[in-house]
Amino acid sequence: MSQSVLKEKKVTLLDLLDRILDKGVLLNGDITISVADVDLIYVGLKVLLSSVDTVERMRTAAAQSPAQIEEK
Amino acid sequence: MMVYVYAIIDRPTVLVPAIPGLEGAALDTLPYRNIGAVVSLSALGKSRPIEANLWQHETVVEALMTDHSVLPVRFGTMFPDEAAVQAVLRTRYAEFSAGLKRVRGYVELGLRVLWDDDSDLPLTPDQQLLPSPGSGRAYMLARLEEECKLQVRRERANALAEDIHTPLARLAAETTRQTLITPRLLLTAAYLVKREQVSAFRQEVEMLNSTYPEVRLLCTGPWPPFSFVAVTDEQ
What residues of chain B lie within 8 A of the CB of A22, using their CB? Predict the structure, then answer.
């Protein structure tokens, strides 16, 4: 195999990361990324990092009384 | 449980690949008019960006690509339910249709060009000899010389990157590129190439490797068209 068409796993993993984490279609979903076993969420297109628990509570609160969302 | 999305696809229902999604979940297609989203059910918090999950996501997208036009979706994209996914398909239908049409029959090839040129790299500040006290002028002249070297190097880099990029761009419908992200990374680029042109592209990369011994071209792919899901100004 020629040197220029590298299928070395490390080079390809870097290329994969560059694409799959940073490119591709960005939908209006919740992107959940786990870091050190703490689940972090990007809510919509705003980079809001929050624990899953907090976001779930905010969501529940918003469903019940939109005007009274408290930050915990 | 949430709905995990892998890709937007050019059919409302597809024969999903006989491979599992993340966490071994079954793949499914959610339709909207003549397009669809390929999904699986995921337990919340389970889409950790560990190597296994990343490759699983990529494997699903690549398997879909063999028979369909596909817009790959970013890793970790999840929705609370299927209706939410279909709502997005509805809202952005025109964009997705156009994107699917644009990439049909194309793959992405990635390129990194390493520049083995350190002969003219300017000295870093801590490598430079300290000027003797009082020789402010000498110091300024030395800085000016370093700046000129840097500028010359940048211009050489741009010219060389252009010489390498141009023949490859001829084989592509669209391209993206960046020059000198780091001093040794002369060129980082992606090319949207017709499937049938992949071997011609690789041959061109080989030729460029021989023609320019001071650089090393690393070509990866074919990839799903991650870099080309949206319309860019660059061509």
Answer: 74
